[in-house]
Amino acid sequence: MEQSFGGGVNMEKRGVWSWWKNQLALAPLISKYYVPEETNNFWYSLGGVLAISLALQVVSGIILTLKYIPDATLAFGIVSDMIHSRLWGITLGFHYFNSFLIYGLVMAHMMRVFVSAAYRKEKKVLWFVGVALATLIFATYVTGESLHWDEVGFAVPWHVSEILQATHLNNIFHYNFADLLAPASATLKLVQIYAMHIAILPIMILLLAILHFYLIRMKGISLPFWKQPSGKKVSFASHIKLWFVYSAFAIGVVLFLAIFAGRDVGTAPQLLPSSPLYAVHKGPGGQGYKPTSPIGWTHGMNVLVEHLGLTPDIWGTVIAMTLMLGSLVAIPFVDREEKEPTSFKEAFDWRKRKWAFLAMALFWAVMIVGIIQNAIAGPG
Ligand code: HEM
What's the chain's Rg over C-alpha atoms? Predict the structure, then answer.
């Protein structure tokens, strides 16, 4: 029984993983690719943990498409049924809580890269690709929240309509409040949001993630400034193992929440006759419905600009997004240094990095002020 079909002998002798590694020619990318030993640490593993969480998000999302129908009259009922069913509830809960994890990992990874100043010199485009990825992940979160199609989810197309009205594009795109309150035309909007969430945005994220990994591979990873460089290299396989160890903890927490944390189904959207909000004249924000915390700053900034007398309040979201995106894009331009820092002193050198720190502070100030304002705001 020495011989068997195809790669059977190899598989028996060297294991399933080796067989796949040979078949897919992965050795030059993994076991024969070497990275500095110092990068095998928690902070340098965040991007990999993020990639694993994204992959699991796609898998759980694919399962959810077997049940979900983007019909404005059915979607809320389908989601409510899923939350009440054991297995669908866990799958949906996993997808939901994992989206919080992804959001947190994007922020943590971005801050690690920022403090390492790993956007300098020829890594500017790598940073911009990261900023584009963060923007696409934000858009995926927003469209996902909408698919729940409760009153909070309904706020998403409502706000899109407000932006289009403020820019006088509402009639061109047939995106008036009346279009959202009629089930047939609302279904068309929900289908567009669904297409964005399950196809267009994930495909763009995948393509940009490939470019992100390619650029890191070609340009080389930075060294952790808080460690003495040893010159030693280790196989990338050992780094990937670390990704899986940290992922096991993070995904374990997500799974725990998916199984044990109950979720409220929310309120049926105001376009449905079965909703207690049916025929109410105000939009979701005006009635006090708020987005979930990762994107809560959008509503918070709307409330803030309204207090300041700027109408329509949707300008708050537009201004906040412009400031946040603008500050991230500005960072590699305002930090003129050429080399990555090699010590705490260089990493936190206020004289050399003050504009970069101020740009990052602006990003966080907008997000934090918006989230606090969202938390304390009443209806309006
Ligand atoms: C889908 C989202 C993302 C994924 C999957 C991802 C993945 C990764 C991975 C695996 C690394 C290698 C080192 C590490 O893990 O720290 C890395 C490095 C890097 N990432 Fe990301 N990343 C994402 C988003 C971002 C964002 C939002 C930014 C910045 C705005 C960014 C900027 C960078 C830069 C500049 C590097 C090089 C770091 C260095 O040389 O030390 N990435 N990314």
Answer: 24
